Amino acid sequence: MIAYLTGRLAQTVVVVVLVTTIAFFLIHAAPGDPFGAAMENPKVTEAVRAQWRASYGLDRPLPEQFVKYIASVARGDLGWSFSRQRPVAAVLKETLPNTLLLMSVALVASFILGIFLAVLQAMKPKSLTDKIIGGISLFLFSMPEFWLALMALFLLAYHFPVFPIGGMRDEVMHSSYGFGGRVADILRHTVLPALTLTLLYSAVVARYQRAALLDALPAEYIKTARAKGVTEKSIVRRHALRNALLPIITLFGLAFPALLTGAVFVEKVFAWPGMGGVIVSSIDSRDYPLLVASVIIGSVLVAFGSLIADLLYRVADPRLRDDH
Amino acid sequence: MTEPLLSVEDLRTYFHTGAEVAKSVDCVSFTVAPGETLGIVGESGCGKSVTALSILRLIQQPGRIERGSKIMFEGKDLVTLDDSGMRDIRGNRISMIFQEPMSALNPVFTVGDQVAEVARIHGSGSRQQAWDRAVEMLTLTGIPAPEERAKSYPHQLSGGMRQRVLIAMALMMNPALVIADEPTTALDVTIQAQILELLVDLQKKFGTSILMITHDLGVIAETASRVIVMYCGEVVEEADVKTLFEAAHHPYTEGLMHAMPQLGEPRSRLNVIPGAVPPPTDWPKGCRFRERCPYSWELCEQEHPPLYQISEAHTSRCHLAIEPERRAHPHPPLVEQLGVPA
Amino acid sequence: MITEVPLALWRKHSVARRLRANRSAIAAIALMLAIVIPCALAPAFAPYDPTAQPDIIGLRSQPPSALHPFGTDPFSRDVLSRVLYGGRLSLSIALVATLLSVTLGTAYGAIAGLVGGVVETVMMRILDALLSIPRLLLLIAIFAAWRQLPIASFILIVGFTGWYGLSRIVRGQVLAIKHEEYVLSARALGAGRTRTLIKHILPNILTPVIVATALGVGHVILLEAGLSYLGIGVQPPAASWGSIIQDGADQIATYWWISFFPGMAIVLTVMAFNALGDALREALEPRRAKS
User: Fold this and answer.
1) Does A192 contact chain C (CB < 8 Å)?
2) pTM, rounded to two decimals
């Protein structure tokens, strides 16, 4: 087990290095300088530009820059954000937790909802319930996230002003609330963005899990369980589900990239101060170091998600626990 | 005559697939007495497994037990019993041992857990008591170091051991009847012998009745006291073991006996019954064995033979019962004459 | 015992039959055609010129009506016509990009599987690394830097990032078939190595390839819509479904129809392609024999 763990960690590190390399290549291959929109102003003279390049080491040979870049990333220094005039790392430190909050809520909610729906579907395959849930799932996951977010915003924030229009907290009132009030305020603001992400991903989970359950149900050991007198409900919920949970762990690994990319759009629509919003605003402001660093962090997140999924797999499937 | 433990009367289990109906079990009747082992023998497709599954009502769509079927057990008709009553019986009063020990066990639960589950469902004791009883049963079925073994997963055990686990599972609640569906087919020959011995032992100890389903006459010889032979969804012969082996009546049974390779006898080819089993969607008219039978004549095509009484405990579904002299004049079976490829 | 002849025959007869029998497959194909044909033939179907701004004062931002079933936008352009022409663009991009991805993925996976050894391991590791950058993020990074790219480059880049999953599947199939009995027996009969592999492998990877194409088109439609919504996809004056949604996003509170209809078009189209992919997968998969 330990050997496996070390091996996988090493693999993850390699991936991170590779991603950083690609990011470096992107920064330097991109047209223009990574100084942001401000420097594109024609009034800025060539001399000033050369000065900036020198002070950022951009006139050094590429391999040297590359090594410096890797070293600084390893140190945690992700460059300087021109649009925000702060170190990139600081910006990400502030915004990443907000995205993680959104992603975790959506992750938990979509798995619970998705598995619940899948169990309902698997208990009576091809029934009306199955077809209706299946149809709604298909509808939901064929939807662009930003569109669902826009529609949700329109319906539940404008047309029927149930939820706040955006942001993570009520900027005006927030500081005057007590602790409970602050939590409630944040929760109110979390509902719509998290709901959007949840609706989409639970459709994916439900589809996947339904297929896994239906695959597990005809198994011989299910027949044995029936012959022991186990109730149908228990058959689906305990015997089949436990086997069908294994593929779900793969979905857990896939949830990271899915929810992260979903967050990019959802955060834009709801003005949620997370990493997705940072990515979007850095596109507009052409703040390339910020953008690329976010991509790196995003990829690291995804790599870790896949690592955790692999480990969970080993824990859940007793057949994999004995190392060959 | 003691009251039979299980009485199957006119069982019909048909599979309704779209336009066709597969009559897998087509009017089968038999009884099992307390403490006895009844063997059901026949080739694949004859309906013996479906019969077993029907008794426990484990048949799923598109199959169903047809009206008019009756399965009496401990004073109840299992065909019309409600679902919760049926669940009370499964694993508790009647249990089943399946053919493939690897796939019959859930790979993600420990064997102890799966065996104990029977007691948790049907018993009233605590989890610990169920576990203890499971370990007890594992000991009884000859599994070494049962305390530890109970914590293993199915993939960590050998085929023979897994089958012992299934047997332990079946016997947990000391059922009155155990249905064993090809319990040794998937095992090595040496292990087969051990498992059969175990079953016979346990039966003596607990007085359980066993319904032994198999295609292997050797297994029948070792374990059964009475046998029914099934072919094309019907019982074609019923007798006690000795009579069956010494004086089989039905030509199909004869064919099965001759098909068993005998060690020590000089033979250049294996004896096979020519032709193939007809599909359950299209049983032939008259006698279903007619085209493969070396004795058939016109009556066999015209009339579907009933179960004739040959002697007190011996019945046979063959018209030879009324025209025994025809046995002296065998002919090549119709399948060969018609040139139908085997 | 597997012989290839009966399998191929079975395939030809059953696939068409099973597809026809599958009701949702038919519905999916019908829906797909109902959308694709009007979009492809937009000049014939669109009631107005999508760029025409006939009456910027009188006709701006009108809700759906008999004359303008999808309403008009702030420039008095007819939304229905815009959606039709936009669909033409979105669908063409999706189709070409997907075909590119599928070809790349099949080739990569097949080569990896056939060649084997160190080369295969290296190729798979590279694949693992590529897979860990979420496709959208990578595309955002690229298109944010290189703006105003011509559509052809856009399609190329999107196509170049979508083949990873399929290549894994193809490689898996190739590996499985390499050792299948009928390949070994064919070789035992003297058939050449490459020849048998190609002859036997192609039919077997057809299923995942076809399914991947159907599902892939849906994915790219969503991707391109997202990128256009962020402003780095299709650039004006060209309009795709995503960019039309973006046009209407700021006025979602008051003029909801501008974003609603193109979004609905996306959902229905992607649904149709997804359902089609599912149905194809079911129809093409050889049934497992019941023992």
Assistant:
1) no
2) 0.74
User: Which CATH number do you get for residue C210?
Assistant: 1.10.3720.10
- Phi, psi (5° rounding) for residue B239? -160, 170
CA distance A138 to chain C (A): 6
Dump pLDDT digits (tens) for A26-67: 767 766 665 555 556 666 677 776 766 666 666 667 777 777
Amino acid making up residue B203: Q
Residue numbers in C near A284 (CB within 8 A): 231
Q: Rounding to the nearest 10 degrees, give the CA dihedral for residues A63, A64, A66, A67.
A: 120
Whether C11 maps to a domain, the answer reads: no
Owner of token pair 């049907």: B122
pLDDT band (50, 70, 90) for residue C164: confident
Q: What is the pLDDT of residue C269?
A: 93
Q: Given the structure tokens 């390339």, which residue do they identify?
A: A288
Question: In this predicted complex, what is the ipTM?
Answer: 0.82
Share of chain C above pLDDT 70, in %: 81
Residues of chain C with Cβ-Cβ distance to A19 below 8 Å are 129, 132-133
Domain A96-320: top CATH class = mainly alpha
Spell out the residues 6+ positions from residue C108 whose beta carbon is closer than 8 angstroms to its own: C123, C127, C163, C167, C170, C171
- B193-B197-B201 Cα angle (round to 5): 175
Residue A246 contacts residue A230 (beta carbons within 8 Å):
no
Within 8 A by CB and 6+ apart from C81, the residues are C42, C46, C47, C48, C49, C50
On average, the pLDDT of chain B sits at 85
State how far the Cα of B183 lies from the Cα of B159, in Å rounded to an integer: 11
Say how far apart CA A173 and CA B92 lie, in whole Å: 65
Geometric angle at alpha carbon B169, from B167 and B175, rounded to 5°? 85
List the one residue out of A6, A68, A87, A80 whose CA is nearest residue A38: A80
Q: What is the pLDDT of residues C10-57, one digit of tens each?
A: 455 556 666 666 777 888 888 889 988 888 888 888 888 877 777 777
**For residue B213, what pLDDT is reported?**
92
Three-state DSSP class for residue C98: helix
Interface contact B106-A242, CB threshold 8 A: yes
**Would you say B322 and B306 are in contact if contact means Cβ atoms under 8 Å apart?**
no
Place of tokens 């011989």: A220
Token digits of residue C18: 């099973």
Collapsing DSSP states into helix, strand and coil, what is residue C72? strand
More confident residue, B329 or B71: B71
B40 phi, psi to nearest 5 deg:
-115, 120
Range(s) of the domain holding residue C126: 19-35+79-290
C52-93: per-residue pLDDT in tens? 777 777 777 778 887 788 888 888 788 888 888 889 999 999
Edge-to-edge strand list for the sheet holding B308-311: B94-97, B177-181, B209-214, B37-41, B226-231, B234-240, B314-316, B308-311
Give domain status of residue C7, yes or no. Answer: no
Comparing CA positions, the residue from A94, A34, A73, A91 lying closest to residue A287 is A34
Q: Give chain A positions within 8 Å (CB) of C279.
A: none
Residue C227 inside a domain? The answer is yes
Size of interface A-B (CB pairs under 8 A): 69
Number of folded domains that form chain C: 1
Please give the sequence-ordered ranges of beta strands (E in DSSP) within chain A, or none if there are none: 80-81, 86-87
Tell whether B178 is within 8 A of chain A (Cβ): no
- Containing B76, the helix (H) or strand (E) segment is strand B76-77
C194 — pLDDT class (breaks 50, 70, 90): low
C-alpha distances in Å from residue C252, one per residue of A155, A159, B206, C69: 10, 10, 77, 18
Mean pLDDT for the stretch of residues A118-126: 84
What residue segments make up the domains of chain A, in order of their start?
Answer: 2-87, 96-320
Q: Is residue C266 part of a domain?
A: yes
